[in-house]
Amino acid sequence: MIEKNNTEKINDHLANERTFLAWITTSLGIMGFGFVVVKFSLFIQQITLMLNSKTSMDIEPEYSGVVGVSIVIIGSITVVLAYIKYRKVAKQIESENFTYGSYGIALMSACFLIIGLLLGWHLIDSL
């Protein structure tokens, strides 16, 4: 029979793993969104070239590509941060000394705030 303390640890480890997998899913969504931003920017440039009858084009600098690549990089960093947090929490569960830390969440929030502001600025600028 499994002791009550071991059952709680098992449940805690399973919850930690579910949280890790949720972060992985989130990071894949972030990277996918960044990929779409980059490809949509390239698609718009191609449509503009096809519809414009000028032989030489003065295309304004597009920031969507830079923002899209930045979003993909943030998604990749999310994977690394999620793994580090997963390992840290697993060790804390085993030592029964869990401490709450939100630096990764604060970092990701700040990154997405900056990306959101840049995308908003780009959209307003392109009107």
Automatic annotation (TrEMBL):
Membrane topology: Multi-pass membrane protein
Record keywords, A-Z: Cell membrane, Membrane, Transmembrane, Transmembrane helix
Bilayer-crossing regions: 20-43, 63-84, 105-124
Cell compartment(s), UniProt: Cell membrane
Pfam families, per the entry: DUF202
Superkingdom per UniProt: Bacteria
Residues of the DUF202 domain: 12-91
Protein name, entry field: DUF202 domain-containing protein
Organism: Sphingobacterium ginsenosidimutans
Lineage, opening ranks: Bacteria, Pseudomonadati, Bacteroidota, Sphingobacteriia, Sphingobacteriales
